[in-house]
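Exercise: predict the fold of this chain.
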Amino acid sequence: MAAKAVVRDVGRVLGMSYGYVDRIAKLIPFELGITLDDALEKEPELKQLYQDDEEVQEPHRPGARRSRARRATPACTPAAWSSRPR
């Protein structure tokens, strides 16, 4: 359960659509104490999604992973950060 919850929490924080994140979370096998590494080994479709996402990395940020489903919202832009009251 913890691995699925982590995927859902991270997806929510990154502003990804619930449907996309839920689809990924459902690919994680239901096993007590499973890690994300174990899930990647046991579920070929999850591993394929992970490998496809690595190919979409931004060239100026080595090691950064960004999902195709993530869309910037006005509150997530740097311009909005500077204009918010503190």
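Check your answer against the key: Residues 3 and 36 are 6 Å apart (CA to CA).
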